[in-house]
């Protein structure tokens, strides 16, 4: 059975895997998928206004709605002919939310996500509008997807300084092939206690068995390493790839995007898989990753007598997690 984690600094319990719904196109199979997820203890559902029919299908087939933590997103265009039918401003937020509530056949969502950072809308406007829908009971918590770390940090500082609802979670791409969040976003989320929901943890299928989607030298190397570790552990490659994302940080919560209940069952088994350190080394060495500046530079400074004096290697510190809270 799946275990649960708190969503950011809220008391909301969410399953250790989220179920992505973007691929839902068959109501019958969708029901099977949701039933399989629920039977395993899954309760965290992820959709978006831009998913169109899949959001509506989810609303049609979802039973016991209040037992699920249901999240949807806004930002992307509802009507490409209308310049105000997209973006993170208040007008699009309100109209997108109302559209999603109708499609989902509910009067509230548990998490309302900003789908992508809109550079043309002041973050102050977005945070105030999001706080308004929380106070109105139409959303219980908020999150942001696909935004720089400094935007998230600034937004939450504004929210906290003005007694408004802060972001509880971020949504980002993360896999053995896409590790960019380790530079700024993941450390920021860990420092502020935010949940990190990871989309495309199988790198668009490149790390799945028999997908044929690994075409670049880097992707082929990653897929080969995943297959090697999977063979050694006697599990499917998908489980290894998913377990790797969870190995990196307890803040990470992968989003499973599937088309069938059988696919979901296989992915869910990754919850019980713990990768040995030698397996992690095989995976990491197959696709080297450089965090770059400032992360690597600061790490060098941490061990430098020139920076911290001769006692630098005699300092006992608590390395259990970030100190910023």
Would you give an account of this structure?
The strands form two sheets. The protein has an eight-stranded parallel barrel with strand order 3-4-5-6-7-8-9-10, surrounded by six helices. It has a two-stranded antiparallel ribbon with strand order 1-2. Helix 1 (about 25-40) packs across helix 2 (about 55-60). The chain has helices at about 25-40, 55-60, 90-105, 125-135, 150-160, 185-190, 215-235, 235-250, 260-270, 275-285, 295-300, 305-310, and strands at about 5, 15, 20, 45, 70-75, 110-115, 140-145, 165-175, 195-200, 250-255. It is of the alpha/beta class. The model has no long low-confidence stretch (mean pLDDT about 95). The protein has a single domain, classed as NADP-dependent oxidoreductase domain (TIM Barrel).
CATH topology name: TIM Barrel
How many helices in DSSP terms?
Answer: 12
Q: What structural class is derived from the secondary structure elements?
A: alpha/beta
The CATH homologous superfamily corresponds to NADP-dependent oxidoreductase domain
Cα-atom radius of gyration: 21 Å
Encode the helix/strand succession as letters: EEEHEHEHEHEHEHEHHEHHHH
Mean pLDDT level = 95
Strand numbers in spatial order across the main sheet: 3-4-5-6-7-8-9-10
